[in-house]
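hiii, so i know i said id send this last week but things got crazy w the move. better late than never?? heres the sequnce for the chain we talked about at the cafe, plus the structure i predicted for it. fair warning i was half asleep when i ran it
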Amino acid sequence: MELLSFVSLLGFLTGMRHAVEPDHVAAVSTIVSLHHDPRRAARIGLAWGIGHALVLLLVGGVLLVLRLRLPGWFSTLAELGVGVALIVLGATSLRRALREGRRGPVHLHAHRSGAHTHAGAIPHVHLGPFVLASRPLFFGMLHGLAGTGTLAAMVLASMPSLRSGLVYITVFGAGSILGMTMLTGVLGMTLRNAARGARARLLLQAGAGAMSLGLGAVWVWVSASGLLTG
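okay and structure toks below
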């Protein structure tokens, strides 16, 4: 029991730390930069964390039960996919910022259901809750797939039993969910306080896009080099 308690604590804290790695922060920052509501930003982080944890638990659990290891090229290929996704996110965010800078801000918000009208002539786009959640969920799953092989191999090598290994992966995923939810909530609050005007909001959005684009390019270069030399 003491061993499982230690494994649980270690996995949870490691999962929370894992949530704030650079590629994770870059991915969610570009999405959160569109929404300056801390609660909505936290929901984006929650969706990312759930997608990440689901893949870790399902794929990692199978690897542990069957005592298998993913080939190195698979993880490198998944990392390449992460890099491409970061580039797409960054380019999309930059393009939106440039377009809004020329044409004026576009207001995006979600509605549960029902038709409605708005006063004024501000251009806006309606996004359903599923659309807002599906993107971070997908990117969380992609990041989880990229890290599953390494995590499962580490657990196989260090955990004394299958039970403790499964516990570690489970609480690791829970820690990453909490860590990303807290991170995006803080990001949303920071953006709300920093982006008081339209110009500041566009600069923050463009900055998040540039960060994601640059990091994605590095990620693709390193991953592609690993595939070619491996």
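btw Residues 162-194 form the longest helix (33 residues). thought thatd interest u
miss u guys!!
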